[in-house]
Amino acid sequence: ASDNPLDFAASADSFDVLGAPVNVGAGQQLVIYNLGVSGADAYEGTNRRALATTGNLSSLSFSGGAFPQPSPSSRFYVVGTATTYACDMTNRRLVMYSGYAIQSTQPASISALNALTTGRQIASNVTSCQMQYVPGALQRSGIVLVYLGLTQDAARVNLMQQINVVNSP
After folding, report:
1. Which of 76, 82, 80 lies closest to 34, judged by CA?
2. Domain boundaries defined on the chain
């Protein structure tokens, strides 16, 4: 049993992890009970706290005060910076932007992303590109659908990938 459980009734600043230690890198943050709604949204920062220590940890220390809501299943997540995959159809490429801070409003244009960080080209010769999130019902997982068309000379390929998104708060 844990000697230092996370107490949601008090303004706790640490708790012991049950199970295997958690690897925490520099700049990573703690998220508890992310529902994606006001008051429990990691992007707003209401349920996200800066971790005070790094390494392979059995006890997590954080700053920023109490969390707004306890997790009914006692889950927590350690998150880093944001990553975006963007379809740059002007330049016919798929670009990955990473290493920028998590924000309440996701940058929605290539110019906004370029203002935050340098993108890395993932694919060129892109002729079609679409990404779509399909939410699950209640506790079920959602799906991200990625459609990508590539053309070079007379050769063309269309790719489709389904990516499972775990919706466990």
Report:
1. 76
2. 13-79, 81-123, 125-168
